[in-house]
Each structure stands twice: as structure tokens, then as C-alpha cells.
């Protein structure tokens, strides 16, 4: 009888890739986790129970066929594992690095419920695709048949890039327009290198370029080219701009110098790590070196900011969040990493105002959690008389992002938006109020996860193919 290659969770413990020591990793922007060796990846993949109803798969937005590629990995069939992984996920090596697996696939792993510790799905996913790149299994896209029809994608973030991949595989001519000088969107400029090294993103951009995708960079739609002109040049348009407008702080002194937006701060840091010269970094405006840093917010962007500030050489880094640890929206894994690296979290604390201009401190209100609301979440309440001042040389706003006013910026009032300012688009297809115009990702959902943007881009690309087929059939009549 053949030896059972799976279900080894009873005898083999959960083992994540080794993390570099905090006092070493907090001085550079390299990824903090080492790679699995082949034997370790096979061992960890073999812990999968191959359960009849794989909750890991059903709780993945892309519904990745996780049990099958774990089995392929455990039995040494890595090229097949990569093919299965790539079939549902355009960028598995990126999701393996930055997805909050503790809230998605791993958080719903069946064997964790029995006390054996979840399968390390994200780390194995990363290993599979990194190996595929290393072995040359990842190739440029070569469509069987080229089509004359063309699609414009506005935004080179994960949603737009995922759509470009799907469309090129069907022979569609694809042009991607983006405001930045490099593709990737937040993958490139919003997420720090210690979570996602930039060569991982750049090699996917290069793969798409070699596949025939045209990138028009440094291009602001509404300024450098009109939205109408783009519609006139292409058979269909996808809007995948993301959300970049920062939620503002309120209170006295909120406009003081030294209070900066998270997106500006992270973009400057990433540019410097590319080797670019960034004036705002050079003059200290977006550089934490030698400064007391206060970051306001509790999501993953706030975690990126505090960990970046540590690496830039801040004298102290504190994160203020108005709820407690259990109720923060960011990944608990990221909080742990930040604490290990020297970040101090100040829970149940909210800014009331700011001292000094340039800023010298944050006026903090201490909070407590009140009665649960209808959803069961406890709302923070102010504790009277418990205010104090937290010293700060730089304050980073990481309160989340909102959509820009696209219809006004692009002079397209007929493009319908929701009451939140997001583009109104059909569920699954991304079809908007304009014929042949689709929208995906955060500009539809509001600020969300990269994996959801990838799913939206893939789904909407399929809908665009159906739309193009319909247009071609009409033209042939």
C-alpha cells in the first residue's frame, strides 16, 4: 500500500518560515521571512487534512484550489502545483506575501479547530510561485489568436493588472494608463519592501510588457488625456484607479506642518528604496530619522507606517488607536511584528487636536469601549478629564482612504457614483452606467484587500470579453 502523503498534522507541527531577528530586520527594507526549503515546504503542505469541505478555499475571495496545490507540493509535483495556483490567482506570490491569511484561508483551516495549528497556506503559496519563477515556468503570455479589439485599463494596480492578464490570454490588445512612473499601484508605492520586495512586482509588470500589454505611465486622466479620448480609442474601458483620497483629521492644529498623509509618506520611502531622489525625504518632511513619530490609525496602512518609521531611524514610534487590540482592523500578525521591532501601541486613545506649528505634540483623549452597537461592536467613548499630550515631531494620518471625485475630475457627470463616492458598478461584471465602461477594485468597493481587487479584475475581464464578443457579432451582421 502506498504511503499516505497527507494528513500529517497529528505528527507534524505547524512551522512558519524563519523570521529574521527584530534588531536586524528593523534596519532594512528586505522581507522579514526566509524562504522554505523544498523539504520543509513538502512537510508543511503534507499537514493538510484534505477535508471534504475545504473552508480555506471557500473563505478565499479567489476560491483558490488550496487542497490540490498543497497535495501537489507535498508529493513533489511543484510545476503542477503552480499551474493549479495560477489558474485562479494572477499573482499567487504576491497574495502569499501580503494577504491576511489569519483572517481568510488559514483563519478557517479545519485542523486549527482541533488544536493542531493551521496549515501555513500563505508561506507554501509564496514558495510554489517563487520556485516557478526560479525554474522558468512563468512565461510571457502568447495568445493562440490575436484580436483587433482593444481595451483601456485606467490604473496599474492589482485589479487592472489582473484584468490585463486575462484579456491578453484571449488575444485582446490592452493599454494600461497610470498616473505613476512605474506600474503596480499600491503594490509598488503603498506597501513597504519588508512585506513585498519590489522586484516581485516589477517582474510581473515585465511579464505583462513582454506579453504585449502597453503601459502609458505618468498619465493623469483628465489632465494629460481626457476620459472621452480614451473611450474613443478603445472598444471598452476598465476603471481600476483605487482610492487615494485620505480621510482628514479634525481638531485644532490639524493643518499644522509635520502632519502628513500615510500615502505620501509610504510613497516617498518606496521611491527612495528604488534609488529615486525624493526632495521631501531629503529635506526631512517625509523622513522619520531622529524624530518622535506618532501614527494615527489601526489598519494595515498604519502598520506599514510604524514599521517604516522604525527602519528610517526614528527615536520613538507610537501608534494611537481609539479601540483596543482585540477590535483593531489590522492584521494581528502585523501588530506582533511591529511590537517586536520596537513600536509602542497606545490603545484606547484618539487625537483631540495638535500642539505647535510645526507640530510638537498630539492632544490625546483617553477612551473606553461602551455598549455594543447593533453589529455587536463596541463604540469608543471619551473618558472625561483624562486628556494628555503625546510628544511628536511628525504625525502620520493613516485613517483610511476615500474615492476621488472621478466624474468631476474626468468631466464625465454621466458616470454614476454611490453616496460614498465610489463608482456604481454591477456585482460580478463591474459594468457601470456607461456603455462599454467597467469598474473594479477599491474604486467600487472602497478601500479593501489586494486579493479582492484581483478577483474583481479577473471577473470583470471575463465580462468585457463577453461584451466584446457581442459587439463583434453585431458588427458582423
Automatic annotation (TrEMBL):
Protein name: Dihydropyrimidine dehydrogenase
Assigned keywords, A-Z: 4Fe-4S, Iron, Iron-sulfur, Metal-binding, Oxidoreductase
Species annotation: Litorivita pollutaquae
Annotated Pfam families: Fer4_20, Pyr_redox_2
Domain FAD/NAD(P)-binding: 150-457
Domain Dihydroprymidine dehydrogenase: 25-136
Listed GO MF terms: 4 iron, 4 sulfur cluster binding; metal ion binding; oxidoreductase activity
InterPro entries documented for this protein: DPD_II (IPR028261), FAD/NAD-bd_sf (IPR036188), FAD/NAD-binding_dom (IPR023753), GltD-like (IPR006006), Helical_ferredxn (IPR009051)
Amino acid at each position: 500500500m502506498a504511503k499516505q502523503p497527507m494528513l500529517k498534522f497529528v505528527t507534524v507541527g505547524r512551522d512558519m518560515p524563519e523570521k529574521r531577528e527584530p534588531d536586524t530586520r528593523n534596519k532594512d527594507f528586505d522581507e522579514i521571512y526566509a524562504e522554505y526549503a523544498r523539504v520543509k515546504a513538502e512537510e508543511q503542505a503534507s499537514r493538510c487534512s484534505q477535508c471534504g469541505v475545504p473552508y480555506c478555499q471557500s473563505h478565499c475571495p479567489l476560491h483558490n484550489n488550496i487542497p490540490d496545490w498543497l497535495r501537489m507540493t507535498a508529493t513533489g509535483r511543484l510545476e503542477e502545483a503552480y499551474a493549479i495556483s495560477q489558474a485562479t490567482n494572477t499573482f499567487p506570490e504576491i497574495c502569499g506575501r501580503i494577504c491576511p491569511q489569519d483572517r481568510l484561508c488559514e483563519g478557517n483551516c479545519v485542523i486549527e479547530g482541533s488544536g493542531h495549528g493551521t496549515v501555513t497556506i500563505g508561506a507554501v503559496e509564496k514558495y510554489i510561485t517563487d520556485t516557478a519563477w526560479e525554474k522558468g515556468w512563468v512565461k510571457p503570455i502568447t495568445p493562440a489568436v490575436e484580436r483587433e479589439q482593444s481595451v483601456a485599463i485606467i490604473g496599474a494596480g492589482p485589479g487592472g493588472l489582473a484584468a490585463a492578464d486575462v484579456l491578453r490570454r484571449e488575444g485582446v490588445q490592452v493599454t494600461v494608463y497610470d498616473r505613476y512612473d512605474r506600474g503596480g499601484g499600491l503594490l509598488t508605492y503603498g506597501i513597504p519592501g519588508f512585506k513585498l520586495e519590489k522586484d516581485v512586482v516589477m517582474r510581473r509588470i515585465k511579464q505583462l510588457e513582454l506579453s504585449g500589454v502597453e503601459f502609458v505611465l505618468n498619465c493623469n486622466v483628465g489632465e494629460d488625456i481626457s476620459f472621452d479620448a480614451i473611450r474613443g480609442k478603445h472598444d471598452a474601458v476598465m476603471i481600476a484607479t483605487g482610492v487615494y483620497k485620505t480621510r482628514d483629521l479634525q481638531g485644532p492644529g490639524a493643518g499644522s506642518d509635520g502632519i502628513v498623509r500615510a500615502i505620501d509618506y509610504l510613497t516617498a520611502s518606496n521611491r527612495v528604496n528604488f534609488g529615486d531622489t525624493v526632495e521631501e525625504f531629503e529635506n526631512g518632511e517625509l523622513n522619520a530619522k531622529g524624530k518622535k513619530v506618532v501614527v494615527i490609525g489601526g489598519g494595515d496602512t498604519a502598520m506599514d507606517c510604524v514599521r517604516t518609521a522604525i527602519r528610517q531611524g526614528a527615536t520613538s514610534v507610537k501608534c494611537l488607536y481609539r479601540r483596543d487590540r482585540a477590535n483593531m482592523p489590522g492584521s494581528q500578525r502585523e501588530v506582533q511584528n511591529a511590537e517586536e521591532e520596537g513600536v509602542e501601541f497606545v490603545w484606547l486613545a484618539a487625537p483631540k487636536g495638535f500642539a505647535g506649528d510645526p507640530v510638537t505634540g498630539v492632544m490625546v483623549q483617553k477612551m473606553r469601549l461602551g455598549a455594543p452597537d447593533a453589529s455587536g461592536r463596541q463604540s469608543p467613548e471619551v473618558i472625561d478629564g483624562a486628556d494628555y499630550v503625546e510628544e511628536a515631531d511628525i504625525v502620520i494620518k493613516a485613517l483610511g482612504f476615500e474615492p476621488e471625485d472621478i466624474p468631476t475630475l474626468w468631466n464625465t457627470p454621466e458616470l454614476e457614483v454611490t453616496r460614498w463616492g465610489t463608482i456604481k458598478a454591477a456585482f460580478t461584471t463591474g459594468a457601470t452606467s456607461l456603455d462599454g465602461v467597467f469598474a473594479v477594485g477599491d474604486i467600487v468597493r472602497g478601500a479593501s484587500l489586494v486579493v479582492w481587487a484581483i478577483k474583481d479584475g479577473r471577473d470583470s475581464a471575463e465580462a468585457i470579453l463577453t461584451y466584446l464578443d457581442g459587439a463583434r457579432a453585431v458588427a458582423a451582421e
